[in-house]
Structure prediction request, 68 residues.
Amino acid sequence: VFFFFFLKPNNPKGKEEADKELAAAFLRYREAVNNGELPYLIRSLVFMLLCVIHWCIGEMRKKGIISE
Prediction:
């Protein structure tokens, strides 16, 4: 869902019309996130971020950059 708004479809109407449609779709998406209508999206993004941080700490421990 997240990456959908950054893909530009082939639009016969022209580039400006396609950009306006994408901008409107992104604004609807951003408004839904800000209004709390997509709680699972926010929760999953936070979980994914924590997984990345956990992985980075593990890699840093392997290389001896940080210790226990």
Summary: The helical segments are 15-34, 39-62.
